[in-house]
Amino acid sequence: MRLMTFNLRFANPEDGPNAWEYRKELVAEIILNHGPHLLGTQEGTVPQLEYLAGHLPRYRPLISHRQTDPTCQYPTIFYREDLLQAGESGEFWLSETPAVHRSLSWGSAFPRLVTYGLFREKERELWFYFINTHLDHISAQARLEGARMIREFFFSREQPMILVGDFNEPPDSPVYRKFLEEDSPLQDTWRAVHLSRMGATTQHNFAGLPRGSRIDWILLTPPFRVKEALIITDNQKGRYPSDHFPYAVEVEY
Predict the structure, then answer these.
(1) pTM metric for this prediction
(2) How far apart are CA 83 and CA 26, in angstroms?
(3) CB of 175 within 8 A of CB of 167?
(4) Which H or E run contains 5?
(5) 197 confidence band (pLDDT: 50, 70, 90)
(6) Rounded to the nearest 5 degrees, what angle is found at the Cα of 105, between the Cα atoms of 100 and 108?
(7) Half-sphere exposure of 154 toward its Cβ, with a 13 Å CA cutoff?
C-alpha cells in the first residue's frame, strides 16, 4: 500500500511564477504518477482542493464531515475509492476548544486542524486510522500541545494508525519525541529504511535546493512494515509542484 504526504503551498498570488495557477497541473501529475492509495495534503485552500478533486481520477476527498470555510487552509485526505473503503471520519481544531470552528490557542499563528478517517483495503479485514495534520510554524507550545491532543485522542484506540503531515519541527525535536517516545507504538518510516539520520530534508523554497530539515513525516504503527521511503524531487524543467518535496512510502502488512 502506498502513502504520501504533500504540503501543497497555499494559493498565494505573491508567489509570482510559482503561484498555484502555474503549478496545479504538475501537482496532479506527480500524485497520479506515484499513485498513493492514501494521500494527506496540507495548506490546501478550497479552490485548490476542488481542483485536485476534479483532476485526480478515482480519488475521493474525505470531507463529508467538514464545515467548509473559504478562509481556511485545510489538511485533507484523498483516497483511492476503487481500492479502499472508508468508515468513520472526523476532524478537530488543535486548540483548547477543539469543537469551535477556527479556534486557536497557545500563540498559534493560524487555526490548526487534524483530520482523520478509518479505512480498510477492499478484500482485507483490517481497519486502520489515517490521520493528517499541519502543526503551527510559529509557536513551539502550540505544536507540542497539538501533538499531545493527537496522541491522547488516538493512542487509546485499538486500530492501527498512520499519521502524516507537516509537523514544522525536525526529527528528535520535542514534537517528534512526543509522538515516538513514552512507549509510543509509532515508527518513523524514513528512519525505518534509511540508516543515516543526517541530510534528508523536505523543504526547498521552489528551487529544488534542500534547505531546513525533514519536517514532513509519515509515522505508523504495527502491523505496517516499511518497504520503501522516498522524498520526491520530480520537477518539470526546474519547475517544482510546491515549496516542499512530497514524501511517499510503500508499506506491507
Answers:
(1) 0.97
(2) 24
(3) yes
(4) strand 2-7
(5) low
(6) 115
(7) 31
Is the CA virtual torsion 78, 79, 80, 81 positive or negative?
Answer: negative
Cis peptide bond upstream of 223, omega within 30: yes
> Measured in whole angstroms, how far is the alpha carbon of residue 211 from the centre of its chain?
19
Q: What is the mean pLDDT of residues 112-123?
A: 97
* Overall average pLDDT of the 116-124 stretch: 97
Q: Using alpha carbons, list the distances in angstroms from residue 146 to 118, 139, 178, 222.
A: 20, 11, 10, 23
The predicted-structure confidence for 49-64, as pLDDT tens digits, reads as follows 999 999 999 999 999 9
- What mean pLDDT do residues 103-124 have? 98
Taking the C-alpha atoms of residue 17 and residue 22, their distance in angstroms, rounded to an integer, is 7
User: In the structure grid, which three cell numbers stand for residue 48, read together?
Assistant: 485548490
Name residues whose C-beta falls within 8 Å of residue 109's C-beta, 6 or more positions apart in sequence.
136, 137, 138, 139
From CA 93, how far away is CA 104, in angstroms rounded? 7
Rounded Cα distance, 65 and 21, in Å: 28
The 10s digit of each residue's pLDDT in 225-240 is 999 999 999 999 999 9
Helix (H/G/I), strand (E/B), else coil: 203: strand
Q: What are phi and psi of 12, to 5 degrees?
A: -110, 110
The span from the CA of 52 to the CA of 29, in Å, is 10
